[in-house]
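Database export, one record per block. Field names are fixed; values are copied verbatim from the stored entry.
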Amino acid sequence: MQLKYKLSVVAFLAANSLCADDTVSISMMSYNENDNRVDIKAPAITVNKDFGTDYALSAGVVYDAVSGASPNFVDTNSGASAYSRGNTTQANVKKTNVKFEEKRTAINAILTTRFDNRDELKSGFNFSSESDYYSMELSQDYLHYLDDNHNQSLSFGLSGQTNQILVYCKNNSKCDTNSGASEKFNSNNYKASIGFSQVIDKSSIVNSSLSFVNESGYLTNPYLNVVRNYNTAPEVTNENRPQKRTGYGVFVKYLKIFDKFSSNISYRYYGDNWHINSHTIDTNGYYEFGKLTIGAGVRHYKQSKAKFYSGLVDYFTNQKYASSDERLSDFDATTYKVMVDYRLTNSINLNLTADYYDQSTGLKATTFMSGIKYKF
């Protein structure tokens, strides 16, 4: 069901790959939304290994088991299904939580190559598989130091992702709705970025980057509906999004160390031709008490709505593009974060993180992740 959650395997494994030691990490993530909307259980394992001084490999796998109910417009006359349509009347149109279940397996690998001048090339591979969605991504990131002391650096990144979406056609105008057969559609995602890093002094550093994203192909969610012509002849039908999307982002991050306390603050801006603009401010602090490290942070996110979005039941008529997906609406959200890491031995660390997410649309979610890391 196209599990594009912010708690994705790519983000999780990328965070673990930053470790310079040879390690094995095992974790379990639990994610829950209010009103029993979504429940995710995701065990994962990541291995980081240096091969001499010139090569390092980070690889991992995560398995998502997802269940819940997603808010959607349905025609109750033909059953509370996201994919069926009947003789619709106003009384039959209802927005309700439609149940779903999905499982996903995803793998990730990043090979780091260090050259004689200690510049670094990271070559990445990601693959994700669901019953109706397959995704593969290749990436290259090059880090170039501008001085002998490695106080300044430039980074360049390129990535390409191809996706295959299986669409059940009973309620989708893109398909042969008479036969109800399923069809496969494709989408592509390309991203380019350039970054700059500057060491300010022995205890602080600043990072910044610019990024550009281009998406094309089937970008519609085949499971989400809109209501058209509600006041005349109501029709519950699949949403329709443009087949192209271009966006850009600006990112700045400042890190500071005060003896046993460290902190960082970052800002990100994103804008695209769907008229979505977003701002993200993220702050985190960590304190070390001997073998125990504790941390806390707050992340605030705000975005404007897509130009073809409406959550109203009586808004859409003959517009070409239409979506009632609240993820494309204007909203703001705050995430509160805490973490604990305990060094059990010189080789074993235990860790626990907890996040609470509060969105202005009424969505609330909690995330817990526990894990163990072994250095070998």
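Remark 1: The chain is about 0% helix and 65% strand.
Remark 2: The helical segments are 9-16.
End of record.
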